[in-house]
Write a structure and sequence with these properties.
Elements lengths: L2 E5 L5 E3 L2 E5 L4 E7 L5 E6 L4 E3 L7 E6 L11
Antiparallel strand pairs: 1-2, 3-4, 3-7, 4-5, 5-6
C-alpha cells in the first residue's frame, strides 16, 4: 500500500492496507485512501470511517490486510 507519511505511537510507518488499533477510541480499522484523496481509518466491522490525523500517539499498527486476512473476514 501507499505510505501515508505518518507514523504510529511506536514510530512505525503507516501504509494503506495496514490494520491499526486506537487505544483512545477502542477501535480496530483498516487504513484506506478515500475518494476525496484522504487517508481514513475504516472501522471493523461497522465500516464507519475516521480521518487519520497527524497526531497518532494513540494508534498502533497491528498488522495488514495481506498478512492478517483474519482481521478483515466479514468486514
Amino acid at each position: 500500500g501507499q505510505y501515508t507519511g505518518l507514523t504510529d505511537k511506536n514510530g512505525t510507518k503507516i501504509f494503506e492496507g495496514d490494520i491499526v488499533q486506537s487505544i483512545e477510541l477502542e477501535l480496530k480499522g483498516i487504513i484506506v485512501f478515500d475518494e476525496h484523496c484522504r487517508f481514513m481509518i475504516k472501522e471493523l466491522p461497522t465500516g464507519c470511517t475516521y480521518l487519520l490525523s497527524y497526531n497518532n500517539d494513540e494508534i498502533k499498527v497491528i498488522g495488514n490486510i495481506h498478512d492478517n486476512p483474519e482481521f478483515v473476514k466479514g468486514a
